[in-house]
């Protein structure tokens, strides 16, 4: 269960306050993989960081009765001067999981080769995403926050990512951000749409996609 209580977040842009999350009060449905939809700049990444606790709201709070992953795809999850291996060990300690098991899983899954032992700052965006997705999937969370990264890599890697994701969804929930509606239909069972600071919840994924499409058309 993830609940928003009077949740508000804004930023100052060119001297004006821009509200991206506007006094949200709702509980997200459980037992499902949710597609988080919204136009560019709607605040999807901001909402993901608020849920993960990596960003503080202006007002209100988010409560949960389970564990939540860091937002996969968010660059702030890693320290650029540390290697992929060192970042993986550090995250294992933070979440209290077996370091050797997580290291073995990530090294095999991310397919980084010798770059696993190089500083993150030399990684391409795709390499960072593969590492982030591997670390996240290597830890058992009640809710996973996934931002586009299952689209990274070649067809074989994408298929492997989706297979691991589906396996995790047998016992966990997820919130997935993607602009690829085919991927959304493949991996999600319901939808939430963020528009002008408000969040609409749809038990029917197709209804969420249609509502999002109409918003995009203006």
From TrEMBL:
The answer to keyword Membrane applying to this record is: no
Q: Which Pfam families match?
A: ABC_tran
- CDD domains attached here? ABC_KpsT_Wzt
**Which molecular function term from Gene Ontology is one that the record holds?**
ABC-type transporter activity
Domain of life of the native organism: Bacteria
What family does this belong to?
Answer: Belongs to the ABC transporter superfamily.
The protein's name in its UniProt record = ABC transporter ATP-binding protein
Q: Which organism is it from?
A: Paenirhodobacter hankyongi
């Amino acid at each position: 269960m993830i609940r928003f209580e009077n949740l508000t977040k804004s930023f100052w842009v060119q001297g004006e306050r821009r509200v991206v999350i506007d006094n949200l009060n709702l509980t997200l449905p459980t037992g499902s993989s949710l597609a988080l939809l919204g136009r560019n700049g709607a605040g999807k990444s901001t909402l993901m960081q608020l849920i993960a606790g990596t960003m503080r709201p202006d007002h209100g709070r988010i409560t949960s009765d389970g564990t939540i992953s860091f937002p996969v795809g968010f660059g702030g999850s890693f320290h650029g001067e540390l290697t992929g291996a060192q970042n993986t060990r550090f995250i294992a300690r933070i979440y209290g999981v077996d370091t050797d098991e997580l290291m073995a899983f990530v090294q095999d899954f991310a397919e980084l080769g010798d770059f696993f032992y190089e500083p993150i700052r030399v990684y391409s965006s795709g390499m960072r995403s593969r590492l982030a997705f591997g670390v996240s999937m290597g830890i058992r969370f009640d809710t996973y926050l996934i931002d586009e990264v299952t689209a990274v890599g070649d067809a074989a890697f994408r298929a492997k990512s989706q297979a691991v994701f589906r396996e995790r969804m047998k016992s966990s929930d997820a919130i997935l951000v993607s602009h690829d509606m085919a991927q959304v239909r493949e991996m999600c069972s319901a939808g939430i749409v963020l528009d002008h600071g408000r969040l609409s919840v749809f038990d029917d994924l197709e209804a969420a996609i249609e509502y999002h499409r109409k918003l995009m058309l203006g």
